[in-house]
Amino acid sequence: MLTPGRPATSVQQSFTMGVEEEYQIIDSETRSLRQRAEAILSQAESSPVNVEAELQLSQIEIGTPVCDSLAQVRAELVRSRRAVGVAAAREGLLIGAAGSHPLADPTDQTITPKERYLGMAEDYGRLAREQIVFGFHVHVGIDGREAAVQTMNRVRGRLSPLLALGGSSPFWIGRDTGYSSYRTDVWGRWPMAGPPEMFRSRAEYEDVIKLLVVTESIAEETRIYWDVRPSARFDTLEYRVTDVCMTVDEAVMVAGLARALTRRCYEQALTDEAIPAVRPELLRAAKWRAARYGLDATLVDVHEQTSRPALEVIDGWLTFLRPSLEDNGDWTEISALVQQTIEGGTGAARQRNAFARGRRLEDVVDLIVSETGAS
Q1: At CB < 8 A and 24+ separation, what contacts does 46-49 make?
Q2: In 3D, which of 221, 230, 253 has the Cα closest to residue 19?
Q3: Is the CA virtual torsion 150, 153, 154, 155 positive or negative?
Q4: CATH 3.30.590.20 fits 17-373, yes or no
Q5: Beta 59-63 vs 193-194: how paired, if at all?
Q6: Residue 150: its pLDDT value, please?
Q7: Backbone angles phi, psi at 323, to 5 degrees
Q8: 3-class DSSP state of 2
Q9: In sequence order, which residues have a C-beta less than 8 Å from that of residue 258 and are 6 or more positions away?
Q10: Distance CA 350, CA 344 (A)
């Protein structure tokens, strides 16, 4: 058993949420990706929502304000999706939220001409140019860097169910990949992507970051792309493991689950609850299996060191999270949204169903656009 340090004091935590979504920019006639981010950003200048450029000109990102409740998360996402949709429509474009675009050619993309992104293209070469994937980030408020690191230590082994529920990228370059989240495979090519390691203290974490910068392994802390990490900019724990969600319901579900997981693991850190030693190989295997199969096969239970049917793993995970979901006032809504996903299928499953009906990837794009805009 590993027992790292614990937060120095029992700070009253708010466990607020902030969400970032990356959107596809889609041609309204051909359904292909369009490199028109600058036009949409110009149209959105007068909008009250926060819209920003991303790595590729065929994608943009929105960020919500700090939210105290799931109701506020929902309202902000509906507002953001509508505002960006209106801005896109003025340019004859559509907006889609899914982890990959079924028709996109990653070699036919243009890096956004900003210093940050051009620097990434220079450093990472073709890897950066082929990152035409779309993620979903949840920031959960947690005061204190030590608290964030010790909470991350406990979160890292409990992320695969979240990925299994949130897959929305089955198609890549016109083909069915067999994955629920192929974005996970593409994103995993970054040198600092994947599950984080264990850190015994905030000091050790910061020493590792400094080492990576000094050795020119990364240019700065923001290039740490772990599945969960203490934010370099905010007093938050940032979750980066799932694809962007097709529906607002799914986005609210993932945000609520991330908040509950943060709270549960923070409380474990406060009591110095020991963390079972989990082999990094098993963590990577659990993540890969969740990305590959979603809810359609077995998942790896890293703490029990076994594989079980996905729904059994999800059920056990919810049982673990239930005290925190109830403390947050979210149990009824989140448990219903998880059940809705189980019964209606993940975003990946719904995309496959759309393709099966007509064997046209354009129909899949239409589904993505439709579900993105539905409130």
Answers
A1: 47/83, 47/84, 47/86, 47/87, 48/79, 48/83, 49/79, 49/80, 49/83, 49/84
A2: 253
A3: positive
A4: yes
A5: unpaired
A6: 96
A7: -55, -40
A8: strand
A9: 17, 138, 140, 162, 239
A10: 8
* Residue 46: per-residue pLDDT: 86
Per-residue pLDDT for 10 more than 60? no
Which residue would you say has higher pLDDT here, 46 or 17? Answer: 17
From CA 328, how far away is CA 324, in angstroms rounded?
6
Residue 318 sits at the vertex; the CA angle it makes with 197 and 69, to the nearest 5 degrees, is: 90
Rounded Cα distance, 207 and 5, in Å: 16
**Euclidean distance between CA atoms 160 and 314, whole angstroms:** 9
Phi, psi of 303 (to 5 degrees): -80, -35
Q: What is the pLDDT of residues 186-213, one digit of tens each?
A: 999 999 999 999 999 999 999 999 999 9
pTM of the model: 0.96
Q: How confident is the model at residue 106 (pLDDT cuts 50, 70, 90)?
A: confident
Distance CA 310, CA 242 (A): 17
CA-closest candidate to residue 259, choices 20, 17, 13: 17
Annotated domain spans of the chain: 17-373
The per-residue pLDDT for range 24-63, each reduced to its tens digit, is 999 999 999 999 999 999 999 888 899 999 999 999 999 9
**Token pair belonging to 159:** 């992320």
Tens digit of each residue's pLDDT (9 = 90 or more) over 222-237: 999 999 999 988 999 9
Q: Mention every residue, 6+ apart, whose C-beta is less than 8 A from residue 292.
A: 178, 179, 180
Supply φ then ψ for residue 293, to 5 degrees. Answer: -110, -15
For residues 318 and 216, what is the distance between their CA atoms, to the nearest angstrom?
41
